[in-house]
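> forwarded from #structure-qc
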């Protein structure tokens, strides 16, 4: 495991105390200036008469009207943050912050509010520190296993509501870096390996966050696919490969979600830092994709003034190394044209109008905790993947069970979660940076509640022999295993840590009815896969995870989730068998604090190009442990009658039948193989549908496939291009179980 110096977004309790002391010293001066500012602040009534408060004008018109009124200092205020708790010395305005990762001053005299930002990957971060509570949802990767845009929307809406209740109007999420490197410590924060699936889901999440009047920032743009050396790694990749993989996820996410911001990442792409990368920020994002809102730097990812500004970075976070006094002086000296500054400011303002921040000021409120639990549990139930179910070991029959062994570290207490700036606080004191946090959702209690007449006993597994002895005298043994990951680290291997493989082997040897429940933030390897009949991937399941797992174990919920990433057999099968690390003596994340001198110290060449995840294993003819799109149900489905109607929006129609005896939700997957001339991997996901079927019920299902999803990116014309030829459409329940096939000419 590689660790970097603690990132200040995860500042611990002691640091926070020091910060508060420092804060107190600046408080008096600030309060004086606020009250002075407030004297001049117009009332809501007075503001109504201002031209830009007319809601029937477009966000662009309103932004332009405000811009005309602003002084140079006010403009500069909008293009940088005001520091972050624990990140260097507090800035003079620190007392105006809300405890989140950063904030941008407003212009009170013009009715423009402060932008209060909080991380919120799977719930609002730093809530305990803010004196409030927030729901921990299943991780974004878990939620991606539902393949459900509606669930993604509920996810975003809940985060949006809880952010605003805590006084935030901007979230630093959602992440959509595709799983090119499964050992990436932030894999749990993202949405899997397929750009169309990930982009669609993140887009729906962001759209619904936005509907709550919250600016989302899609991140980390771009190719921040590993944490090792993230501030100094130069990612090498060709344009076509990037556009068809990592960048496609952003393109789709931005199109659907219309986020208020895009966060440029720490790394370099083809020799240039992302936050000063003209191709990424100006040509592609603001040019080709017409992104109208603002680019915010990742925390400490700004490394220059003129170059960043000219490349399209609009807002530097968390503090103004470049975008404060230096920016002002550069404008005054004519080194940066006023029009360039105006463009940055206009974009920030536009986002505030477009997302409704100006018209809907936040009001702190108590959130609906029960509703949050309910949403979290429901999403978890659609996120838990039944990977293996030999001899129908699941669902468990509560009437026939006399004894159950619950085995695993903390399985009596709770379930684990992912760390770093994504971390949601569990009840108790705020979590420190990279603390290993368990939510109090007890598998032991949840199973006991389901089987009140059975004896349910717990063993931590610390001594595998004792756990095996308990398993031996139980009807069924359920082993809860965990793999913790976090921002600021990568895994060396996908093996379960802490001898848990040996624990499973010993328990399975003692009881053939052993079920493994995995709590992980990415794929794991499973040397014991053939020795246990039942395997559930529960991911980081959120603060109602145990109830969701128990509902699936006992068949109260029929599992429907499918893997959004491949589980390889071994790290040796990955495109890069070893994660590249910085050379000895590198500054790690301290590179961020040394902005002027930052430079690449090593590179990672993504020679696999577009062959990410299943596309790699398909193209390289490698067998996998569990394929992309795989997930079992307690019922079975039959696919028949495939028809393809080619066009601008092609339609793929087929019949899906529930051939079993339980109602279920099937994710029907549609893949396409392109003509040989395209030189693409054997297939790509081009669409899917989530279908509910009662036992014996059949439905005709239609999946619409936009032309872009069948196209290649043509570097010559800098455009998506549909090549003429024969396309093969494949339909079924997993990337490796596609019973229907039909060709169509384009
Ligand atoms: C992370 C971002 C996060 C920011 C603020 C950075 O280190 O990469 O994802 O939003 O910190 O906490």
């Amino acid at each position: 495991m590689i660790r970097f110096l603690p990132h200040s977004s995860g500042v611990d309790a002691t640091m926070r105390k020091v910060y508060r002391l420092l804060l107190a010293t600046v408080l008096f001066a600030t309060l004086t200036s606020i009250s002075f500012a407030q004297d001049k602040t117009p009332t809501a009534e007075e503001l109504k008469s201002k031209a830009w408060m007319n809601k029937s004008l477009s966000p662009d018109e309103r932004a332009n009207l405000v811009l005309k009124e602003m002084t140079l200092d006010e403009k500069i205020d909008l293009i940088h943050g005001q520091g972050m708790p624990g990140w260097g010395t507090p800035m003079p305005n620190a007392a105006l912050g809300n405890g989140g990762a950063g904030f941008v001053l407003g212009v009170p005299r013009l009715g423009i509010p402060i932008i209060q930002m909080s991380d919120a990957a799977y719930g609002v971060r730093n809530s305990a520190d803010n004196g409030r509570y927030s729901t921990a949802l299943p991780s974004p990767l878990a939620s991606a296993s539902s393949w459900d845009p509606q669930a993604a929307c509920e996810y975003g809406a809940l985060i949006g509501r809880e952010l605003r209740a805590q006084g935030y109007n901007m979230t630093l999420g959602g992440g959509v870096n595709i799983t090119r490197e499964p050992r990436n410590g932030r894999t749990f924060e993202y949405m899997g390996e397929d750009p169309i699936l990930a982009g669609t889901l993140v887009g729906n999440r962001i759209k619904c966050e936005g509907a709550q009047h919250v600016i989302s920032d899609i991140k980390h743009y771009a190719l921040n696919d590993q944490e090792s050396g993230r501030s100094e790694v130069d990612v090498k990749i060709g344009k076509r490969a990037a556009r068809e993989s990592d960048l496609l996820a952003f393109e789709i996410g931005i199109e659907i979600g219309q986020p208020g911001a895009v966060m440029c990442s720490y790394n370099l792409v083809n020799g240039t830092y992302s936050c000063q990368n003209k191709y990424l920020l100006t040509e592609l994002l603001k040019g080709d994709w017409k992104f109208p809102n603002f680019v915010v730097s990742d925390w400490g990812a700004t490394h220059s003034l003129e170059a960043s500004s000219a490349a399209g970075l609009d807002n530097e976070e968390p503090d103004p190394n470049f975008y404060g006094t230096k920016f002002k002086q550069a404008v005054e000296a004519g080194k940066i044209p006023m029009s360039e500054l105006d463009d940055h400011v206009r974009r920030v303002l536009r986002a505030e109008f477009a997302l409704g921040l100006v018209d809907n000021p936040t009001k702190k409120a108590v959130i609906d905790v029960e509703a949050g639990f309910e949403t979290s549990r429901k999403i978890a139930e659609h996120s838990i993947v039944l990977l293996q179910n030999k001899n129908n070991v699941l669902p468990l029959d509560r009437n026939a069970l006399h004894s159950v062994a619950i085995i695993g570290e903390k399985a009596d207490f709770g379930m684990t979660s992912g760390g770093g700036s994504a971390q949601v606080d569990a009840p108790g004191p705020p979590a420190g940076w990279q603390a290993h946090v368990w939510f109090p959702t007890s598998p032991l209690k949840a199973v006991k509640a389901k089987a009140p007449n059975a004896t349910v006993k717990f063993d931590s597994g610390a001594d595998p022999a004792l756990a095996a002895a308990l398993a031996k005298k139980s009807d069924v043994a359920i082993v809860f295993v965990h793999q913790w990951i976090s921002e600021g680290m990568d895994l060396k291997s996908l093996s379960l840590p802490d001898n848990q493989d040996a624990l499973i082997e010993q328990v399975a040897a003692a009881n053939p009815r052993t079920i493994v429940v995995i709590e992980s933030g990415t794929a794991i390897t499973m040397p014991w896969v053939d020795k246990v009949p039942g395997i559930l991937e529960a991911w980081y399941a959120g603060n109602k995870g145990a109830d969701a797992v128990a509902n699936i174990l006992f068949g109260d919920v029929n599992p429907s989730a499918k893997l959004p990433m491949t589980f390889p057999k071994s790290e040796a099968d990955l495109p890069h068998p070893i994660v590249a690390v910085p050379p000895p003596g590198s500054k790690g994340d301290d590179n961020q604090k040394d902005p002027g001198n930052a430079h690449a110290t090593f590179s990672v060449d993504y020679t696999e190009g577009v062959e990410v995840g299943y596309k790699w294993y398909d193209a390289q003819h490698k067998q996998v442990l569990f394929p992309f799109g795989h997930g079992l149900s307690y019922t079975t489905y039959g696919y028949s009658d495939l028809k393809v109607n080619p066009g601008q929006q092609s339609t793929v129609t087929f019949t899906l039948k529930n051939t079993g005896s339980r109602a279920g939700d099937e994710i029907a997957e549609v893949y396409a193989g392109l003509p040989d001339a395209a030189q693409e991997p054997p297939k790509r996901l081009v669409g899917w549908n989530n279908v509910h079927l009662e036992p014996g019920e059949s439905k005709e299902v239609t999946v619409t496939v936009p032309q872009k999803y069948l196209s290649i990116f043509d570097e010559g014309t800098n455009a998506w291009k549909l090549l003429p030829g024969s396309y093969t459409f494949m339909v079924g329940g997993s990337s490796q179980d596609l019973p229907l096939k039909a060709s169509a000419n384009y």
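QC bot note: The radius of gyration is 26 Å. The first strand starts at residue 102 and ends at 104.
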